[in-house]
Amino acid sequence: MRTIILKLFFVLIAFACVSLKENAQTTLIGKRYIAQVGETCKDGIGMLYTYRILDFKKDSVVIYYKVIAEVIPERKAMYEHMYDNLKKPYKWKVKKGILIIDNCKEFNKMTIQKSTLIGQNLVFNQEETK
Questions:
Q1: CA distance 23 to 79
Q2: What gap in Å lies between CA 130 and CA 111, rounded to an integer?
Q3: What is the pLDDT of residues 45-83, one digit of tens each?
């Protein structure tokens, strides 16, 4: 009887561990994280604010830049679209509270803390849903 109870206990512990892993993985799906990486006065005509974006899908995370340009209308589109072709998807997984992005040197491993991803050089905050 004692052996059966111990086996049942270990099965429940294993199930809880698998469940926690799946929960960490699914909490990122469909979410977008953002970190400001630059702020520049450009050509004496205004400001450029540059952000890195992590956009999580079920099987990949798309990493890209976004620029908010507070400049004259003639230059706004040029600055805001200069990184459009740099979007790149990567495979990702979560292990023990650590986000691992495969084959991405810049954001290889990050710690997950509530609605924040903490990397070596950047802190990403979850984008507020509108």
A1: 39
A2: 26
A3: 899 999 999 999 999 999 999 999 999 898 899 999 999
